[in-house]
Amino acid sequence: MALALSLGQRGQGTCWPNPAVGCVIVRDGRVVGRGWTQPGGRPHGETQALAQAGEAARGATAYVSLEPCAHHGKTPPCAEALIKAGVARVVSAIEDSDPRVAGQGFAMLREAGIEVTTGVLAEQAARDHAGFFLKTEQGRPFVTLKLASSFDGRIATSTGHSQWITGPKARRAVHAMRASHDAVMVGAGTARADDPSLTVRDLGISAQPVRVVVSRHLDIPLMSQLARTASDVPVWLCHGPSPDPERARAWEGLGARLIPCALEEHHIDAADLLQQLGQAGLTRVFCEGGSALAASLLADDLVDELVGFTAGLTIGAEGLPAIGSLGLERLESAPRFELIEARAIGPDILHRWARALR
């Protein structure tokens, strides 16, 4: 099952809106087939593994990181494919929360006389599939908030100078994290100040994540890197209900997708923003700031994982804080996370925090 989970992780960032599923088929103690959900969401992991196993799948055990699907979509159900292949046993990590499946895949297998074992490495599987589950159950994607800051929590000097706070190894790790998400998201202020490309570079990947910019007024320069490359790598602009018509037409002409979102006071409503992204199919979003967008997501309890890269330098109180105002008066009101990883990465420190159980 650990191998099936690691194979499934290879599909993260490329197979949305489908879950990234891994499958390993074992017969007589030997792996005869393995697969994972392919870019675009199909073939599914089970289909890939069965094709590799061929006749060796008959009488074998299939280890699957998520309950095999039971519904007819653009491909036949994976539960049906496992039955037709003649597998004797299916071991699954976790039940699929999609109402079109939700135990029906297991039921199909059992009715066909196949032994079914569930709950193997379920906790890891729940984390791996958290984005798909959130989109299915709550209509929004899993959100990772990444912050690269100085020791004193600043992301730029008072003049806006920010390149580079962290070292090259940390920046390379960020590219790998981008690649495992469906989309990379920033606020309009970051897009204007840094003119980022938001692409994954130097890792040899074939599919780039969607680039999402949250801009109430669509006030991002039309000569920016995002604008120049919008026809090559998807750019989605999440804006307020009344954008400037001329700017909207210009961005659409460049190939960008415009997504209207509701307002909360004078900024984009973070909850509605994520609902819109979930409706568009995204399951995993990697947010890289800036401070106002980070604060908005945290204030609405919409961050599922924090990733921090902390450098050994100090900028001072006049520098730009990593997170904007949250309006907190008491500590018990502060968003709290649990440490899941901390390690040195070059001269910097990487620390990852998961949403604390409440």
Short description:
The protein has 358 residues and is of the alpha/beta class. It has twelve helices and 18 strands.
If you had to describe this structure to a student in words, what would you say it looks like?
This protein has helices at 2-9, 45-53, 78-85, 104-111, 122-128, 130-138, 168-179, 188-194, 225-228, 245-254, 270-279, 291-299, and strands at residues 22-27, 30-36, 61-64, 89-92, 115-118, 142-149, 154-156, 183-187, 210-214, 235-239, 257-260, 263-264, 267-268, 284-287, 305-310, 320-321, 337-345, 348-355. It has a nine-stranded mixed sheet. The chain has a five-stranded mixed sheet with strand order 2-1-3-4-5. A two-stranded antiparallel ribbon has the order 7-16. By secondary structure, it is α/β, with parallel strands linked by helices. It is 28% helix and 25% strand. Helix 3 packs parallel to helix 4 (104-111). The longest helix is centred in the middle third of the chain and has 12 residues, at 168-179. Helix 10 (245-254) links the parallel strand 10 and strand 11. The model has no long low-confidence stretch (mean pLDDT 93). The protein is globular, with a radius of gyration of 22 Å. The chain has two domains: 1-128, 3-Layer(aba) Sandwich (Cytidine Deaminase, domain 2), CATH 3.40.140.10; 140-355, Dihydrofolate Reductase, subunit A (3-Layer(aba) Sandwich), CATH 3.40.430.10.
